[in-house]
Amino acid sequence: MSDMVTEAATKTAEEIELELELEAERRAALTDEEREAEDKALAAAGQPVARKRPKKLDKAIDGTVVKISAIGGVQGEMAFDANDLPAEVQKNLVPFGLGHKLGDAAAGRTGKDAEDAIKKVWEGLLKGDWSVRAPAVAKVSLSEIAKNLEGLGEAEKAAAISLLASMGIKLPGVVAAPASAE
């Protein structure tokens, strides 16, 4: 346990921030079912579980009417018909909503992965499919990488650990072997 505390204490703020960012991206890429299964496994192991923010609104769309209820509110369900809006506002809502829909497709993704997710949703919309979701990105955990290192020869293992370290990636429970004098 003291090794873990020492390791955590020696991490820089940037390393901790990167780890948190990578974990957030990894969790964002999970399906609801995968996230639920992971949370159950963590809870069973006595580990902390990432919690969603509590729901604040219930929303439903019925044709051009948006129905919203604020959780804990006093008015109950409120209905707003887009057809009641001036034409200029209606004209602006479509590109605004499209921007949100396409932007949501890229949530938790970066670079080419974000671009691919956006294109996939756009192609689905063109076909009339509102519910297209980009597939989850491939997941590789640090513990999986550490486990796979065990199958490498000593020279390959040392080179891989060195490469990962040069990118600022520290593997849990893996210590670089001292360089051999060959």
Describe the structure.
This protein is mainly alpha-helical and 182 residues long. Among the domains are: 1-52, no CATH class; 140-182. The chain has 7 helices and 3 strands; from the N terminus they run αααβββαααα. The chain has helices spanning 2-10, 13-28, 32-44, 87-105, 111-126, 142-149, 154-166, and strands spanning 57-62, 65-70, 78-81. The chain has a 3-stranded antiparallel β-sheet, with no helix packed on it. A hairpin with a 2-residue loop joins β1 (57-62) and β2. α4 packs across α5. The radius of gyration is 23 Å and the shape is elongated. Residues 1-6 have low confidence and may be disordered.
How large is the radius of gyration?
23 Å
Please report the distance between the alpha carbons of the first and last residues.
36 Å
Structural class: mainly alpha
Strand content: 5-15%
Q: How many DSSP-defined strands?
A: 3
Main sheet properties:
3 strands, antiparallel
Sequence stretches where pLDDT stays below 50 over 5 or more residues: 1-6
SS summary, helix count: 7
What labels would you give this structure?
7 helices; disordered N terminus; 182 residues; 3 strands; three-stranded antiparallel beta sheet; mainly alpha
